[in-house]
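Figure caption, in words: inputs first, then the predicted bound structure.
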Amino acid sequence: MKKTLMIAATSAFLISGFAATEAVAGAEKKCAACHNFTNKGKVGPGLLGVFGRKAGTSGFKKHSKALKSADWTWDEEHLRAWICNSKKAVKEFTGNKKAKTKMPPQKVCGEKGDEIIAFLKNLK
Ligand code: HEC
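Bound structure (heme C present):
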């Protein structure tokens, strides 16, 4: 009985550990098509240090108007909405129904989005 429990606990740990690694690798892959996880821009701005930073202030030269004049900070709430649907989020954040961003909606929502946020927080 005890042994069975231990095996169950160990495999649960292995499975969740594996899932987390998978998600981060997946996240990296998806975002890395356009972003570096350094402070260097690519198609989009470098994401190093983005958590807690004011939007549009990484020094990236090709921001949309909306991001250039952004007045929000990338906290969990903003990132969650952004990673799920940037097209919709930019309208909400700016309060302008016509606002547009150059980042296409990624549709990474809910738990998956939270895993990406954790990944961004830990970037060094
Ligand atoms: C197809 C290219 C593309 C993909 C894929 C993409 N992004 Fe972006 N991202 C951009 C562009 C372009 C901008 C600049 C948007 C603007 O100025 O309107 C941007 C901006 C951002 C910003 C704002 C940064 C700042 O300094 O204000 C964050 C945060 C961000 N992206 C996160 C992500 C995450 C996380 C993913 C992966 C789930 C992702 N992006 C996937 C193109 C992309």
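The two ends are 44 Å apart (CA to CA).
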